[in-house]
Design goal:
By secondary structure, the protein is α/β, with parallel strands linked by helices. It has two domains: 8-134 and 316-363, NAD(P)-binding Rossmann-like Domain (Rossmann fold); 137-314, Dihydrodipicolinate Reductase, domain 2 (2-Layer Sandwich). Helix content is 42%, strand content 23%. The protein has helices at 16-27, 39-48, 62-66, 82-85, 87-96, 107-124, 137-150, 172-181, 218-225, 243-256, 262-273, 283-287, 315-331, 343-347, 349-359, and strands spanning 8-11, 33-36, 54-56, 74-77, 99-102, 127-129, 156-165, 185-190, 193-198, 203-206, 209-214, 231-236, 289-298, 304-312, 339-340, 361-363. The strands form three sheets. A seven-stranded parallel beta sheet has the order 3-2-1-4-5-6-15, sandwiched between helices. It has a seven-stranded mixed beta sheet with strand order 10-11-12-7-13-14-16. Strands 8-9 form a two-stranded antiparallel sheet. A hairpin with a 2-residue loop joins strand 8 and strand 9 (193-198). The longest helix is centred in the N-terminal third of the chain and has 18 residues, at 107-124. It starts with 7 loop residues before the first strand and ends with a strand.
Length: 365
């Protein structure tokens, strides 16, 4: 990696994911500017990590977020749920001429980044890398590897996300994002185009393990680097036997949200019950959890051609590490384009594979 040129600004540094990113950056030799809404907490973290610069910013006051970045910087945001709080950092980066990465896993926000903000970022000459963590970097890598190895016969790819081990619980931010997903429309890439469909509309099995359909960045990124692909489906296998009940709940929620006022009521209830950044699993719990990602490229008849399996660290430590790698690579001039980018088109497949391995997840097939 070339030496870091631009500043790296980490917004949300005192939250659970933010601290993981901050520590990963420092371990790799970077000196990020740490930003959060609590002056006392961000200054304490900055001092703990070696006397880093710090700043105070709050999404409730967008001007304070805009003041964080300048042209040529890299802004990393871990302030979620992003559908509620993500817009100020995203707009701040584009308006300032700064590259942008975030830790979201929310389909509605991902689609907003690609559809609404991607053209503005391209015009500004900056890159937007949304969902640049466990959600959904390793699946983009696995899917692209499977498609490359399958060659021209491959017209579809299925990507599944699983965890193994015991002891890890979801962070507050993960819970808040997941709770909001059922009330919001998601999407799939079917027949060569993006189509709207609900989260958990379908269930698919990988090696006998069920997973529910989700919207991710693979549906945007993989068709760009493999134009011959017609179907890109992404599946979340965290729920095991509960996948079928979750599918039924998704169907019921989709019907209910068509009624006037119901979607807003669900959102309000979610905001009351799930508070966002409330901490996450400790290091011992994370160490007992492993990530497993599977990608299967198939031909026009649906016959599997190539299967790629990745395995490695738990989702949280991986997210911190890969965001640090992505931010440092972008700051060193390593991005290959502008606008809203998928991980492969942003860095190149081989470079991404090396970066993901450095962050703790590697090929195991």
């Amino acid at each position: 990696m070339r030496g870091v040129v631009g500043r790296i600004v980490l917004f949300g540094a005192t939250g659970f994911t933010g601290q993981l990113v901050a520590r990963a950056l420092v371990e790799r030799g970077a000196a990020p500017v740490l930003a959060a809404r609590s002056q006392a907490r961000v200054e304490a973290l900055a001092a703990e990590l070696g006397g880093l610069q710090s700043a105070v910013a709050d999404v409730a006051r967008p001007a304070t977020v805009r003041a964080l970045v300048e042209a040529g910087d890299v802004l990393v945001s871990t302030v979620g749920p992003f559908a509620r709080w993500g817009e100020p950092a995203l707009r701040a980066a584009i308006d300032a001429g700064a590259h942008y990465l975030d830790s979201t896993g929310e389909p509605s926000f991902i689609r907003t980044v690609f559809d609404r903000h991607g053209p503005d970022a391209a015009a500004a000459g900056v890159g937007l890398l949304t969902a640049f963590g466990y959600d959904y970097v390793p699946g983009n890598l696995a899917g692209a590897l499977a498609l490359r190895e399958a060659g021209e016969r491959a017209v579809s790819v299925d990507v599944g996300y699983f965890v193994g081990g015991r002891g890890a619980r979801a962070s507050g931010g993960t819970q808040a994002s997941a709770a909001g997903m059922l009330a919001e429309p998601a999407y799939a890439f079917i027949g060569g185009r993006l189509v709207t469909q609900r989260t958990a509309r379908d269930v698919h099995a990988f090696d006998g393990r069920p997973a529910v359909s989700i919207g991710a960045t693979e549906q945007f990124g993989l068709p760009r680097v493999h134009p011959g692909v017609r179907d890109v489906r992404v599946w979340l296998g965290w729920f095991g036997p509960a996948s079928r009940p979750l599918q039924a709940l998704s169907a019921a929620t989709a019907v209910a949200t068509k009624l006037p006022g119901v979607r807003g009521a669900i959102g309000a209830a979610t905001a009351r019950l799930v508070k966002g950044s409330t901490g996450g699993p400790d290091a011992a719990s994370r160490a007992r959890t492993r990530s497993h990602i599977v990608a299967v490229a198939s031909d026009a008849a649906g016959a599997p051609l190539v299967t790629v399996r990745l395995e490695g660290d738990n989702p949280y430590d991986f997210t911190g590490a890969v965001l640090a790698w992505g931010a440092m690579t972008a700051a060193a001039g390593g991005l290959r384009g502008s606008g809203a980018l998928g991980p492969v088109e942003a860095f190149g497949l081989d470079e991404l594979q090396a970066g993901v391995a450095q962050a703790g997840i590697a090929r195991r097939d």
